Amino acid sequence: MRRLLEENSGLRVVLLLCLLAPSLVSSITVSTPAELHASRGDAVALSCTFVSTSRPTSKMTVDWSYRPQSGGPPQTFFHFSSRAFPPLEGQFAGRIQWQGSPARGDGSISLINATLNDNGTYTCSVRNPPDVHGSPTSHTVLTVTPKTPSIRFSDVAVLLAFILLPSGIITLILIGWMLCPKKQHNQSKVYRSPIEVTEGEEYGVYQPAPKTKRSTCCQLYLMDSEDEAEYYNLKKRPVDEDYAESQC
Length: 248
Prior knowledge:
Elements: H1 2-25, E1 29-31, E2 35-39, E3 44-46, E4 49-51, E5 61-68, E6 75-81, E7 83-85, E8 96-98, E9 109-111, E10 120-127, E11 137-145, H2 153-179, H3 217-221, H4 225-236
Keywords: Disulfide bond, Glycoprotein, Immunoglobulin domain, Membrane, Signal, Transmembrane, Transmembrane helix
InterPro entries: Ig-like_dom, Ig-like_dom_sf, Ig-like_fold, Ig_sub, Ig_V-set, Myelin_P0-rel
Protein name: Ig-like domain-containing protein
């Protein structure tokens, strides 16, 4: 009877060890963000952390796989084992950088210049023998959207320069036009022959030139070509010193 009890106790211990053994080697846990959002052209940090009861060794591996949003089987595009092996061809060639640190339980990577074709599910798998069971994988759903246009300060400055500057110049011209009204042009000018003799000139008598008002700078500026010619011809016309008045 005593011998039977001892045998039963031994069986219980063996059964208990068998139950506890898987839990001792299946303690690795991998964690990633459930969702990530990015704009086209951004650099996306694909975070992956893991917890293992065993210290990471040269046998530890990290694999990243990708499944498109449209569906299909996952495809491994990145592998780490003592050193990083980024993809040399395919969709992610030249756009994956290793950011992890196995000693700190980090297996993260970064995706450079995200595109709309990168939408999908990214899976991080970590193996650290003897911890190869438990939850060695974790998934992240990445959503890349078109970048919203943004107005930079330089664009605003150029826009203001092309709109406000011409508007200001036109406003100044209009104000000057209102403050200095243009002299009305006399449409009833009569052409006078250069050999025409007026009354009094045949006897050598010159009529005194009529007193004219001195033109202002504003009137001279707004004077048209015909008025200018008449004005300067009048100033250059010789007059008798005894009868002409000074125009200055």
